[in-house]
Amino acid sequence: MQCGVLVDYCDVFISCLDSHSDGPNYAMSNGGGGAGASISTHLLDLLEEPIPGVGTYDDFHTIDWVREKCKDRERHRKVTHHLISECITISLLNELNAAFARALAGVIDIAADWLNDLKEGVCLSAMWFNHEQCCWDSNETTFAERDKCPQWKTWAELILGQAEGPGSYIMNYFMFTFWALSFAFLAVSLVKVFAPYACGSGIPEIKTILSGFIIRGYLGKWTLMIKTITLVLAVASGLSLGKEGPLVHVACCCGNIFSYLFPKYSKNEAKKREVLSAASAAGVSVAFGAPIGGVLFSLEEVSYYFPLKTLWRSFFAALVAAFVLRSINPFGNSRLVLFYVEYHTPWYLFELFPFILLGVFGGLWGAFFIRANIAWCRRRKSTRFGKYPVLEVITVAAITAIVAFPNPYTRQNTSELIKELFTDCGPLESSQLCQYRSQMNGSQAYPAGSDAAAAPGVYSAMWQLSLALVFKIIMTIFTFGLKVPSGLFIPSMAIGAIAGRIVGIAVEQLAYYHHDWFLFREWCEVGADCITPGLYAMVGAAACLGGVTRMTVSLVVIVFELTGGLEYIVPLMAAVMTSKWVGDAFGREGIYEAHIRLNGSPSLDAKEEFPHPTLAREVMRPRGNDPPLAVLTQDDMTLAELQSIISQTSCNGFPVIVSKESQRLVGFALRRDITIAIENARRKQEGIMLNSRVYFTQHAPTLPADSPRPLKLRSILDMSPFTVTDHTPMEIVVDIFRKLGLRQCLVTHNGRLLGIITKKDILRHMAQMANQDPESIMFN
Amino acid sequence: MQCGVLVDYCDVFISCLDSHSDGPNYAMSNGGGGAGASISTHLLDLLEEPIPGVGTYDDFHTIDWVREKCKDRERHRKVTHHLISECITISLLNELNAAFARALAGVIDIAADWLNDLKEGVCLSAMWFNHEQCCWDSNETTFAERDKCPQWKTWAELILGQAEGPGSYIMNYFMFTFWALSFAFLAVSLVKVFAPYACGSGIPEIKTILSGFIIRGYLGKWTLMIKTITLVLAVASGLSLGKEGPLVHVACCCGNIFSYLFPKYSKNEAKKREVLSAASAAGVSVAFGAPIGGVLFSLEEVSYYFPLKTLWRSFFAALVAAFVLRSINPFGNSRLVLFYVEYHTPWYLFELFPFILLGVFGGLWGAFFIRANIAWCRRRKSTRFGKYPVLEVITVAAITAIVAFPNPYTRQNTSELIKELFTDCGPLESSQLCQYRSQMNGSQAYPAGSDAAAAPGVYSAMWQLSLALVFKIIMTIFTFGLKVPSGLFIPSMAIGAIAGRIVGIAVEQLAYYHHDWFLFREWCEVGADCITPGLYAMVGAAACLGGVTRMTVSLVVIVFELTGGLEYIVPLMAAVMTSKWVGDAFGREGIYEAHIRLNGSPSLDAKEEFPHPTLAREVMRPRGNDPPLAVLTQDDMTLAELQSIISQTSCNGFPVIVSKESQRLVGFALRRDITIAIENARRKQEGIMLNSRVYFTQHAPTLPADSPRPLKLRSILDMSPFTVTDHTPMEIVVDIFRKLGLRQCLVTHNGRLLGIITKKDILRHMAQMANQDPESIMFN
């Protein structure tokens, strides 16, 4: 009695299992079934061929990561020399993808610039030139006058023939609004008619897809085409939106389309998602010129399942994107960075205080924005209002254009605004923001850039900036979620940059007028350049973006790649962490997670904790008064019984048990696979009738002589279903689902099958525990 | 027949399970056992108290991540307002840790500098000044002469009274060697006597610990103290080693020691590892001044289990470390960066070719180094040679000192060498490497720093550098693995920097003499500064470090944080990727993984794939002719039987089954827990005898009236053991073990227990599949 008993390997139901069948061709539950000696070899041969369609997924279903990964490894084993060919495939795929995405982004940039300038005027010498290109070889070499050249005509000059005066102002105002409305109308119409999936930023949906959900057509060629075109129009229409989020979607579309060139990636949903992860990294890399930031964004924000292999694959994609970017040199300074800044002063310890204040502002703004935007989107979804998307877009565009025109800071391109706010005041800077008294007098007593008393220009700029801040805050809430492509990065950064610049100028003036305060005394001498308002703008932008998206590391990396400000990493980190903490105090979800939940997509967020002490048996079905679980037995059902079970239930899969009496689990068969296999057998095998016996065992059960030919379904049986015991805490179950990417899990008690837990059950349970409506989880 | 049968929830063995006991206090298998009405309330009460010692681990055992995480969540639920207090705890812990690690690193820096200079001479005005501090306020203001000041005396001047001549050279040579040997002897003796764990870089062991292995004392206070002291000595002895890897170990020691201030972290092995992950990030942050790189290093290289929570916790630790670093300002330039470089020229497309060449060199060096070093370490381990560590260290130190002294590039501090190699030649640069002809003639025809013909100084520097390269390559192989603290970052970077500088100067001279070649014609005019040899050194350093460690993203980030060279990200990425590919072609393991395998630690590397088509039943025990699996039955064993099973087997745990006949699995009990529980019961409960019945069920089985008091062990039973079916492919099992951090997993077939797979079984199987000796896996 001192030792346990050796379990009999040969169970009664698999007693004829040939031990030679353990070879490679037997490894996969979905693969072949082994070559054991059998009485019905013919039947076996027919069925061992892979049945077409088995192992694919329906739209709006969740993939089974484990199964997909197994399929890939199985394929690997069959292919020799896979290492080199795979390297080449991946390289090629990534290169194609990154290069194409980069090229598209370049086209979008140029087209959006042109259309944006079209709102103000037109280049007479060459229609296809934007304002800057038009005045490129103008004679006006003065820096302040660089925008005015004879070739460039505003609409008022063109139509009314006069450049100044109230009439021409109204004409320009009218044309500005007219073009904005036209672009917006065109954008929303194209989206509505051709590709409804092209709207929004796309990042929430990509997160859902990467977490293993199937949305057919979301990354298709139509979406790509329409999104590219409408993105240009939406940006040009002047709506408070950015092009960075949609560019990630565009890059993922490219990745998806290119993956069809390689069956390895197109046929395996898990492998495809690895490509998409890399593509999203390339997207950010392309959008911002931030390769490392892109990789981290993909890791921290987008990807659900991120093996280390994907890390360096993303890295490679980002490398190629950065390289192509450098070859194209779009920013004209042979640098990779979009908003390159060069500050001449270090920061001081005291400045951490305003930086943290900006972090608090960012966190509050993020929390407020998420709540307001989600409330508005929910209202749009639930009321009649959402039925007129075109009208809504046009209304928002009209309000935006009308309010934006009078204020120079809202009229201009948002990314140019950010660039201006980030820039430190130098001697060449002609902007209103840099009108300091010492420079106005022309008396260069202090070196350029040093702190000085603000002139009226700065005060009026402050007013205009404050109005712009309020305007951007309100409009962004109503814009994000419209049925046009709309990103959130640039508007959020603009809001933060405005707030930051205002705080920066305030601190600067404080230091100028009170440089004998104990706070400033030690480090800020008269005439020295102690405060850099541009740095405050940068920190504010990072804080606001952090508040909205709740990114931390990737955001800091993106910002310092954007600006080249490696020395300001501590201020950035402090602001971003503060912003995250403040934001999290009001709600732990970032805007993307909030939108995923609003859409009801089944995404198990890796960041959210599951803090409840429930057990698996409280979550599994059947519960309490539910009808019993639909199960199949391994060898004593007829085809008619099987079909009636399938038709009378809506489950996606059925556990297969040894017998009703013992309830011991054998495996799991998916509904889709069973249906396909039955149809396939009916078409290909003769003698399959309604009273044919269906069996999942290795060999056919002994049948009476007159019974019709049995149907073997072992090849579609998953013989390694995941099981947990009924006492398993739900936190462990949630962990397993997240980490392994499961679709369902069976619950046993003392070796007997009790029930089943699907991803949907878990999401419903989580919603219930959080006092939300469990019916908001819509898909399977 | 159309639907499955609802499984009877009330199994015969748990028929009295009270349904009210589903509340929170019942959630944990290790927690309490519920409050169902019982006949033996007294007994229950006694046993429901947590038994001291249950749930802890022995030395050199693997932790069970799932159980640890559950314990923490259980604790969470009991503590109210945990969010704020936890935030404060974490912040405090991280701050303490990062600040302390930073302070220690500062002390190490200063002490190592002083000792290093002591080898050459001594400061007469103040003994505790190093060379630089000694000459700080010297009158010699010439840049070239800054090293020579009257206060600083070389040993020859002090002892022989003369500064020049062969006699003084020999005297200096002798003293240099003498001090080097003394330091090395002291270091190895201290390590040997006080803390054997203080040797090596510590990163392989930390990786093992983070993957869930217990090595008591490895992160203790003695290790910390001795490692700090001996690190200073080892660096000062001039051995070819760096202090960056050991600093990560030191930071982890700090993290471990500070975690004892908070029971939450000290009592939970999984939580402690989260702190250690953050500590390792702080360590790199402190060592290099690279906060983001530290976080990524922790993610890519060190951590096994890295939840996103840890990401921003590491980020916070790195932030604090960076902040403290900035407050201390050790590099004297108010920058965070160690090797700050400023290059004035962009790179050109053609230069990618030499950069990739450097990548190839780095990969080859990495592969060669790993093989050679592992072969040498294995030899040390297996032969008598390893029994004299002190002798070995002294021999290596003597050879190093004797060979290093004559060559200025090997005599100087390695990190100063790297700094010199990274620096671009400016007009102020007096080093031999910058002796170009145009500058020598004093005719500043071209702007400083522009390409020029090399003068003899450069050629002799090239020779010396080549010799230094060979010397460093050979010595590093024999140094890494000595019984002194030794890091690999700095020597690897030095080798790469030397190779890079040589290639850079070669390309520069090529461009100078052949600027009409088609390769150079377009972008390199005469007199222009086209090639920056310092950039080549930086790229080479990154490539070599990448070849040795196989880091990618984190390495690039570390290097550009080290140098501030954000614009050179594409060259860096290209070189690092090439180096990784070339290195991987010779063997996929980095140096740390290779050392882990050499040590036989049970670490399932997340990067390695498991490509074999085996099934779970081929790996599980018992196999073939093995004795049957030792199992416990849930209610029909006596204490004597239980004890005899425990004493006759060496398994770490035993599955509990319903009965020998049904073989249905109930749960899993750990050997250690059973032993502790029995001892505890014997001490506290009366009437426990050898023929007492042991039961794992909720209620005591009905016993004859005269039988002794039964012993209830349900509280130590893990009622949610992980199970897989015997048909599960091993690749899935490996994946589950990796992702969930399991210690063991039970194998079932059709609901019956077949066997068990432990982490050790998997590692043995993997070794077998790779044709290695399975017995090299030593621990459990």
Automatic annotation (TrEMBL), chains A, B:
GO molecular function, one term: ATP binding
The CBS domain, residue ranges: 620-686, 717-775
SMART domains: CBS (SM00116)
Transmembrane regions: 176-198, 218-239, 246-263, 275-299, 348-370, 390-409, 461-482, 494-515, 535-560
Domain of life of the source: Eukaryota
Membrane topology: Multi-pass membrane protein
Similarity field: Belongs to the chloride channel (TC 2.A.49) family.
Name recorded for this polypeptide: Chloride channel protein
Species name: Sinocyclocheilus grahami
